[in-house]
Amino acid sequence: MLENDEIFALSDENESETKNKKSTLPPWRIMLVDDEPSVHQVTLLALRSLTFEGRGLEFLHCYTGGEAKLMLTEEKDIALVFLDVVMETENAGLEVAQYIREDLKNKQVRIILRTGQPGSFAESEMMTSYDINDYKTKTELTSKKLKTTIISALRSYQELDNSESLRVALDKMLKCSSELMSEKSTTELIAEISASTEQMLPLVQKFESTPTVVNIVCFNSEDLSCRQSFMEKNNASSISPQLHQKLSDSFAIENPPSFIDGQYALLYIGKTDQKQHYYLLLTYNNPIEEKETLLLFNLRTNIEIIFNNISLKESLENVNAGLEEKVKQRTLDFQQACERAEQANQAKSSFLSNMSHEIRTPMNAILGFTQILTRSTDISSQQKTTLDKIAKAGQHLLGIINDILEISKIEAGAAQLKLIDFELVTLLTDIGQMFQFRCEQKQLNWNFINHTDQSVYVRADEGKLRQILINLLGNSVKFTDQGSITLVLNQPSANIYQFEIIDTGAGISDEEQKKLFRNFSQGAAGEEKGGTGLGLTISTKHIEMMGGKLTLQSELGKGSTFSFSIELERGNEENARQSVPEIEQIRLIKNRKFSALCVDDIAENRELLGSVLTSCGIDVTYAEDGLQAVELIKKQTFDIVYMDLLMPVMRGDDAIKIIREELNHDKLTCIAVSAFSLSHEIQHYLTIGFDLFIAKPFSFSEVFNSLITFFPDDFVKEEQQTPAKKVDKKQEDINLSEFILSRKMLDDLKLSASINRSSYIKQLLSDIAVQRPQNKIYTDYLILFIDNFDMAGLVKALEEIEYEQ
Questions:
Q1: DSSP output for 646-664
Q2: Is the dihedral of CA 331, 337, 340, 341 positive or negative?
Q3: 484-493/445-450 β-pairing
Q4: Would you state the pLDDT for residue 519?
Q5: How far from chain centre, in Å, is Cα 362?
Q6: How many CB atoms sit inside 10 A of residue 708's CB?
Q7: Long-range CB contacts (< 8 A, 24+ apart) of 156-162?
Q8: CA 284, CA 212: separation in Å to the nearest integer?
Q9: Is the torsion defined by CA of 175, 176, 178, 182 positive or negative?
Q10: Coil, helix or strand for 762?
Q11: Which residues of 209-233 are buried (b: 16+ CB within 10 A; e: fewer)?
């Protein structure tokens, strides 16, 4: 607080500055936050005529911290906040500073604390703890010091603002260049240049009252009448005489230069083979500044390169063989353009990966709650059928998402082989059983021909090999309407295995074969049958990762043969992985206490995971972000933590570092649960402190497995608590030989029963009951076998049913 004599001194000192010219530029916005009106008055008196960079000052007044917070949310472009510390509370000013930095995420505005009680708050503590930019006592701020403090703060704000403006400008230029690179012809490019530049200008120049005017001008350098017409046409335009003369002089120059003159910019962007020269004519409201000039020349260079590349593509077909050296140089330019296009493709893959995450997150809730409802004991058969359909549709969508994510992983170089020991012939036999049934549905013959030993143990990526064969066989079945599908396994030499998929389908033309292996590409038959066009691309990439190459032999009307050969290291029979049945349910051992913390910003995901954990007898506590989780762990003891990664306030990967390093909870079991599931990402999360990673959408069995793995002495496995249904006397007398089904339906039921597809069988039987209500007594009888876990009895009962004639 200044004394009265100091106020008068300030008034006299500033009197000479009131003669400054009134600036046409908008003033700097300064917020004064102080509960003493006299402080506001003194500050205004001292600074009323101060200018910086030709701009005056505009003051916003607040008298409490709460009032300041409200104004900060409404007012924009505030450059400086003068902030008293003690107002309605002792820490009101500090709370405002924290609100600016943490809640509003505003790092640009300069904050100067100004207090009348300097002894209450240590300067070093204020500067380090609250991200303020200066700390002053009211008694030390004389008029001169106040002015120098203001100018220093405004200069700092200006530098930050200029840096942000430059970053935004460079982003706009990069985006514009990427869009222009996608154009197919110079005609389309010229139209797009005009539209794109008009949207993004000005780049960094401020205080333009009207939009920048963008025009494309063109003339023929060899046609004198065209030059004259162009000059006459532009005589009446608004460009300056100096710029007009420079343009006229440039007609005779082979590579015309670009000009900046006052508020006008004339940027040369290229010429076509027909000697048509193109300029970008820009008209600003104010004279073009130096920084804007440098960026405009950079933008012009980018556009000229793109223009030349597209012009080159148009002219390559007409290049004379005698211009070989010129062709080589231009081809190099073309290759550079392709490299930039590849970079854009990498950006697309990153986008697909992020979009996959956004889709998988709600899919976790959809499929998870479907699992909960399916496990319920009080739903009807029809409701069960509907839930199975929802789950089936969700899994289909998830499969498409996984295909897209797999492509992005491959293009990003993140796909890796996961080598395990397994028995190869068993794998092919299991796949064969699946496709034998699908072939029978289409009345096709299925053949599996093994020219190797009956048991072949190998070490390879079983999952990717399975996916390759399923994709190739699935395509063969889809595009074959009569004849047969054959899978052949050969071993031409030691550790070299050849796989052939032979079908008698429609075949593929030579023209379609050329584009068959591109992403999202399909032939005419593929467009008719449906699909994403990704399966063949994924299979090709996976085979290449294994050191092989996918080949195709096909002739229209005679079918197709896809084949590949890969080297498979000999595997260890003892280490061969055995299939582990999914855990239906686990239960906490009686009289044990177990607590879990579930952390996810999506309420539905918290509820889903919490329901799964609660069903095991676990006490569950919830948190919405990493910060809440850290605070809860400080206060409570948990046995296990399930934590999402991408959350507001504090991410899961940031929280785990605090838990491990600052809280020293080395023994606390922490499991990451996220829709980000690229292999290199998973490895990263495990190295920073997570004990396990579960990908969304997750199955309940994965959660149960995690608990059994880390706490084997606290949980026991138990069967799903589905009450057994007894077969009454009336049902025991049912004669299944009177139940007539089509051959296709009955074979489907028999095959599904043999491989224990209980949910699928229930769906089929429920559909039969809906379509033929008179058969409901038979379908209910068969469903009882499933509910009583008597699959052997179901297989035997299905043998009594008669085929429909």
A1: S-SSS-HHHHHHIIIIIS-
A2: negative
A3: parallel
A4: 55
A5: 14
A6: 15
A7: 156/110, 157/79, 157/80, 157/108, 157/109, 157/110, 158/53, 158/79, 160/107, 160/108, 161/79, 161/108, 162/204, 162/291
A8: 5
A9: positive
A10: helix
A11: eeebebeebebbbeeeebbeebeee
Helix (H) / strand (E) element for 741: namely: strand 740-741
Q: How far is Cα 707 from Cα 714, in angstroms, rounded to an integer?
A: 9
Bond preceding residue 202 cis, omega within 30 of 0: yes
DSSP state, residue 100: I
Question: What are residue 574's phi and psi, to 5 degrees?
Answer: -70, -30
**Cα separation, 267 vs 260, whole angstroms:** 8
Residue 3 pLDDT > 60: no
Report the candidate in 272, 265, 229, 226 with the shortest Cα–Cα distance to residue 246: 265
pLDDT number for residue 598:
96
Strand 640-643, strand 595-599: pairing: parallel
At 597, the pLDDT band (50, 70, 90 cuts) reads: very high
Give the DSSP per-residue string, 473-496: HHHHHHT--SSEEEEEEEEEETTE
- Largest Cα separation within the chain, whole Å, is 114
Give CA–CA dist 652/623, Å, rounded.
11
pLDDT surpasses 60 at 63? yes
Looking up tokens 């170089």 gives 413
Query: Are the C-beta atoms of residues 408 and 346 closer than 8 Å to each other?
Result: no
Cα distances (angstroms) measured from residue 88 to each of 36, 83, 121, 129:
11, 13, 16, 21
Residues forming beta bridges with residue 33, ordered by sequence position: 62, 83
Beta bridge partners of residue 126, listed in sequence order: none
Location of structure tokens 């003033």 = 27
The whole-number pLDDT of residue 561 equals: 93
Q: What is the pLDDT of residues 638-682, one digit of tens each?
A: 999 999 998 999 999 999 999 999 999 999 999 999 887 666 677
525/391: higher pLDDT: 391
Give 494: exposed, middle or buried? Use CB within 10 Å, 0-12, 13-18, 19+.
exposed
- DSSP 8-state assignment for residue 722: -
User: How many C-beta atoms surround the C-beta of residue 536 within 10 A?
Assistant: 22
**Token couple for 265:** 């910019």
